[in-house]
Amino acid sequence: MSYLNIESSEKLLDSVGWEILCALQQDARMSYAEIGRRVGMSAPAVMERVRRLEDAGIITGYSARVDVSKLGLPLQAIIRVRFPGDRYPQMRKLVAETPEVLECHHVTGDDCLIMKLAVASLENLETLVGRFGTYGQTTTSVVLSSPVTERVIDRRDIAEHGNGKQ
Fold this sequence. Notes:
With 166 residues, the protein is an alpha+beta fold. The protein folds into two domains: 3-63, Winged helix-like DNA-binding domain superfamily/Winged helix DNA-binding domain (Arc Repressor Mutant, subunit A, Orthogonal Bundle), CATH 1.10.10.10; 68-142, Lrp/AsnC effector binding domain/regulation of amino acid metabolism (RAM) domain (Alpha-Beta Plaits, 2-Layer Sandwich). It is built from seven helices and four strands, in the order H-H-H-H-E-H-E-E-H-E-H. It has a four-stranded antiparallel beta sheet, covered by helices on one side. A hairpin with a 6-residue loop joins strand 2 and strand 3 (113-119). Helix 2 (15-26) crosses helix 3 and helix 3 (32-39) packs across helix 4 (43-55). It is elongated. It starts with a helix and ends in a 6-residue tail after the last helix.
């Protein structure tokens, strides 16, 4: 991100910009009129602010939260994979073609990839672990519970932890 983009982001993320951003993170279907009531702006003014947040790449999209267990995928797991660097293109392709992979992160440290999967059964998980294991060493953890699944990013939280301006 260039200095100009950071500067324009800071201008967009004044106190009202942050309030709009928090409202949309809590409920992306909230109407511009409702957001406007909360922040003291008209619906068209909120719509324009949201458009500018989108144009700046701060808001990158909108989505529905889905309970994967209700879709027949009651088991979630974290798989860490360590493999030689020359296998990264093949692993990336395999991960992209595996619908059970909900998230995948290329990371530093001993592991190369960390993935979050949702599967129908332990047998399904075992098959996938074997498939990923053909490229390197895997470590698998079954998710027992998820105390934090998503967090609203709030200006106050960032500032409190020394990573932002107030």
